[in-house]
Amino acid sequence: MPTKDANAEPSFRTMIQVDMEIASFLSNWAHCDYISSYLARTISHNRPDSVLFSNLFSSALNELLEVTFRTRHSGGALECRLSRLGETDRIELTFACSREEHTFLEAAVARVQGADRQARYLSSLSGDVAPSRDMMLLELTVNYNATLRLEEVDDDMVKIVVDLPLGGLAN
Amino acid sequence: MTAHLSPSGIAGRFKAHFDLNNQEFSIAGSVRPQTIDELAPSLALLKESIESVRGVLYVNVRRLAQMNNTAFHAFARVIIDACRVRPDLRFVVVTSSVVGWTTRKFGRLSKIEPGITVEEYDSEFYPGQSFLEEGGFIPILRTQTKMTWRHERSILPRHGMRPGIVMADICCGIGDFAVLAQKEFEPSRIVALDHSKSSLAYARKVASEFDITGIEYTYGDASEMLLDDDQFDLVTCRHSLQIFNRPAQILKELFRICKPGGRVYITNEKNSHCLGEPRAESIRWTYNEVAKLFEHFDMDVELGPKSRRYLADAGFDDIRVESFMVTNLDGDPKDFADMIAAWEEVYAGDMAAKRGDSGEFIKQFRQGFKDHISAALHPKGYAGWPIWAASGQKPL
Ligand SMILES: C[S@@+](CC[C@H](N)C(=O)[O-])C[C@H]1O[C@@H](n2cnc3c(N)ncnc32)[C@H](O)[C@@H]1O
């Protein structure tokens, strides 16, 4: 079990958790889509507009899973936990990765929350190269107002924590 | 011209299409490729579309439910590049307010290239939307549902309603039917969808005041819903096919979201058959005119008895049709009278005025409603409003 933050954060209630072997996750790209669609639908029922919420949440979670898919892993398990506090839904993705990947993710998480994130997002959008993992994470902060942070669970495990404030949305 | 995707698991989950007449490239479904190679046919189609239009290309993403950044970037690139080499060309991206992310995300493109604009398209409302929405109709919908429910609660089990099912009420209005259905039949899940924000707000308010949970009130357009295929045991759509100018298209969507083996249940009127005694003649004349008035606005309030044909044409099996008459004897005759008074106000008020009817016509038109009200309240009178309830099974 990951250790809990020491600071007195109001507590998020876990709604659902999916664990799978990294190897089987990586065996099929469509897993990103299946998992994000399934989980989004599962937790959407008590949001004011379940279909709108599920559509947005699935988009965001899918980007995150795609980033994870593209990360160089060192085996082990992938844990995806969703929890909720009020109008915020939290995604926690825990997996093993190399030191370099860890450093990369740490830097990326910091970059995408910089004050210049809008400009970065636009420039990566108009850039020629295929979208980087940075852009996928930028998407979350720029288009979904997400906040991201990275936690080190133990030596070679990382946990990406993303808070998405989508719960109050309704048309 | 249509490009279907073929490779891997995302196959067939989206469709791209170009319509030269309307200079419109559209892409719909869920687009989540691993690499852009999987998009090659659609990207080629977009490039071809750009080459074959003049002035403006509409990019229709109204039914684009999902698109990952890999795909978004690839399509955006093609459009941005085209802006640079073809300054004569404008791009108008048409989004829908129903899909949460498209307006914002495509909107970013206009910051990069001013030749790209985004228009959020709020579905062409059904022809009478403004009359019914702004006409203070909400209390009347409540009264109507209360009156029809007395009949429908015993009818519904013959049309697939039973405890534990997953159901959707499409065009739910203010949501009363969903609440009544939940109480009486305890389905395991109810999705209630409408395209009126004010009605949904009202429904949500009622639900929270009465501590009703478990009904998912959802904003959407019945003619192109974000709901997945084959999801519901029972899809209901009450009093609504008759107010669309293209009922068959709505029925197609109801069919799509229904599970194979599940049922779609619709109720509709035949307004010219509203009746009353005394003063039957005056009442009959007025309701004949009601039917013509709706026809003028492209709505068919005579649809009830055509339900069988509509369901058959949409591909349903085991079609069941029945009719019932809501009357002044069902409950409080005052409710019946109130409903007619509200009809008079909307039909002989806003709608007749909009059609440009003469004062003389309107006077006679109103008289039939007044006579219907008198019939309802008369100690020996009888007043009726006939409804057709029909359902069909989606083949297994
Ligand atoms: C006559 S009311 C019937 C409401 C409810 N079913 C009832 O029986 O009281 C028609 C409803 O259809 C809704 N509606 C109209 N156009 C729609 C669309 N394109 N998609 C979804 N709902 C729509 C209206 O907002 C309205 O609530």
Keywords summarizing the entry:
heterodimer; A: 171 residues; Heat Shock Protein 90; 5-stranded antiparallel sheet; 44% helix; B: 396 residues; Transcription Regulator spoIIAA; Rossmann fold; 8-stranded mixed sheet; globular; binds S-adenosylmethionine
Give a brief rundown of this model.
Chain A has 171 residues and is of the alpha+beta class. Chain A is 44% helix and 25% strand. Chain A has helices spanning 22-26, 30-44, 50-69, 99-111, 117-126, 133-144; strands at 13-21, 77-85, 88-96, 147-154, 157-164.
Folded structure, characterized:
With 171 residues, chain A is of the alpha+beta class. Chain A has a single domain (17-164), classed as Heat Shock Protein 90, CATH 3.30.565. Chain A contains 6 helices and 5 strands, in the order βαααββαααββ. In chain A, strands 1-2-3-5-4 form a 5-stranded antiparallel β-sheet. In chain A, strand 2 and strand 3 (88-96) form a beta hairpin. Chain A is globular. Chain B is α/β, with parallel strands linked by helices and 396 residues long. Chain B has 2 domains: 2-120, Transcription Regulator spoIIAA (2-Layer Sandwich), CATH 3.30.750.24; 127-393, Vaccinia Virus protein VP39 (Rossmann fold), CATH 3.40.50.150. Chain B contains 13 helices and 15 strands. Chain B has helices spanning 40-52, 69-85, 102-107, 109-112, 129-134, 138-155, 176-185, 197-209, 247-257, 280-296, 307-313, 333-355, 359-377; strands at 2-4, 14-19, 24-31, 56-60, 64-67, 90-96, 116-121, 166-170, 189-194, 215-219, 232-238, 258-269, 275-277, 317-327, 382-393. In chain B, the strands form 2 sheets. In chain B, strands 8, 9, 10, 11, 12, 13, 14 and 15 form an 8-stranded mixed β-sheet that branches. In chain B, strand 2 (14-19) and strand 3 (24-31) form a beta hairpin. In chain B, helix 10 (280-296) crosses helix 13 (359-377). The model of chain B is unreliable at 3-11 (pLDDT under 50). Chain A binds chain B through residues 28-30, 32-33, 44-46, 48-52, 55-56, 58-59, 62-63, 66, 121-122, 125-126, 128, 130-131, 135-136, 139, 142-144, 169-171, and chain B through 8-10, 30, 32, 34, 36, 65-66, 68-70, 72-74, 76-77, 80, 97-101, 104-105, 108-109, 111-112, 189, 191, 193, 197, 200, 204, 213-214, 216-220, 226-227. The complex binds S-adenosylmethionine. S-adenosylmethionine is lined by residues 123, 126, 129, 141, 144-145, 171-173, 177, 194-196, 199, 221-223, 238-240, 243 of chain B.
